[in-house]
Amino acid sequence: MSWHPPYHSSKFRHVYGRVASRExxxxxxxxxxxxxxxxxxxxxxxxxxVVTESTGxxxxxxxxxxxxxxxxxxxxxxxxxQARVLDVKWDPFNDQRIASCSEDCTVKVWxxxxxxxxxxxxxxxxxxxxxxxxxxxxxxxxxxxxVLLSSAYDYQxxxxxxxxxxxxxxxxxxxxxxxTDLVLSVSFSEDGSRxxxxxxxxxxxxxxxxxxxxxxxxxxxxxxxxxxxxxTNLNLLLTTGTSLWNQRQYALWDPEDLSKPLLEEDLDxxxxxxxxxxxPDTHMLYLAGKGDGNIRYYEVSAEKPYIHFLAEHRSLxxxxxxxxxxxxxxxTKSCEVFRFYRLVPVKDLLEPLSFLVPRKSDGFQEDIYPxxxxxxxxxxxxxxxxxxxxxxxxxxxxxxxxxxxxxxxPVEAAGPDHSANSQNLQxxxxxxxxxxxxxxxNQDKEYELANQHVEYDISDLSGWQxxxxxxxxxxxxxxxxxxxxxxxxxxxxxxxDAYTLPVAEKEMWQLFYMQREEIRSLRQQxxxxxxxxxQLELEIKNMHNQHNQTVLRAEYTFVSKLQYNDSPTxxxxxxxxxxxxxxxxxxxxxxx
Length: 592
Hints:
Mean pLDDT: 80
Low-confidence stretches: 412-503, 563-569
Structural class: alpha+beta
Largest sheet: 6 strands, mixed
């Protein structure tokens, strides 16, 4: 590890981390055991989303931020994926909309009720189908509304537009095919005009997200990059990874010239991925390792030596993933400048960790809370696709202040009138398929809609036969080949853009999932019982062999001590030889 100067003049030199008490934490969570190098947690000022372990598909739980303490093990979840969920991200401009990606090769966008989940959500607001393999990364555009990016194990990065009417999108607005291996990390610039990626081929790339054209590329033998992050308002690029000697390190780059890093510094000899987090308001950089309990934090400047070490927070509990509260959700009364939510799997715990600036005054500290990015989009998806670049709309954290938008009111693109076509949407999709905003604002109406019973005519089932589609949990109108086209080498999508699902009662789906989980648990218990029986039989056999060897050894020792010159002993000479022969046959490792 390189040497740090003992002193750096900064107002954040005395920042310290404060761990929340157990009453203010969230315990009892079944945290996912997946090995995907993602945060597995997403936070906004209203809700917390955590990827959980699930049988028979993928799921994640959404709980209100204020609902601390023990989480009910039967808490409602979002369980519409058919395989393990790999990542979740909240919409930065809508605290009730979240996106998730999964091993089922899809990306789904969900609407969360204003009062939180009261029952399981199965049907998404929108489904994005365009990847041929697992989708491991998703990222929202920082300033444009309804723009989402996804990256999968098929080495492709797709940019999606979500303001379309259809519930299923099959054609992204841009597909980036510049990578020759798995994409490990993606990061937008401050205005979303550039996209930085790291790949398993050791290359760091800066791309145009609208066209996919490569703007800058770097191949550095001395630094294998894992994660990448744009340091907004400094025009710098940070990567974390390993050196040639397998030392974890970080590197600082000029995004206009990636031929050589501006700075490389080793951290330690750990093996976990280092996640970088940056606060543009305080220019503070946080480095948290997966599987570690410590978090290092630095102050970044645009001049050499660029990065100044401040301090390190240490904990005995390792973290599997981390979520970060947006700056508009921190507590300004306690001078909180950053807040993590650490996933501690050894205790099934989600632990808030606040970084505070020690101040004596209880008033609003304007020097540590400058104007920050608010929760309002600067432009529409159509404006961004037409080539406009805008920075985030800033807001003040001072109580009573309002967001001031310096940009003109966005002009909606010419297209169908969504308000006039609300009835058409209901005709295209079932009530459970879409969650309109009117239904989300009134929870009671949603419950009444969910409790409506539909009677089915099941008098004639002669033409029904069981096939492989019954194993996917949700019966879609498309075949499994259309979900995983890479299995047969071609893509076949449903002909209808409406993509309607058969009408089903939510109570039936809940019973179906509960019975499937019970069957899986019973199968696991049977497997464990069979393994235990085999272990016990092997232990009994070993104990029997050890007992026989012990008896023979004792008899052999007793006979060897006898004096053969006594006449009574000579009578047992034959018995002695036979005993020795049997002993050596039972214990061939003992020399004659």
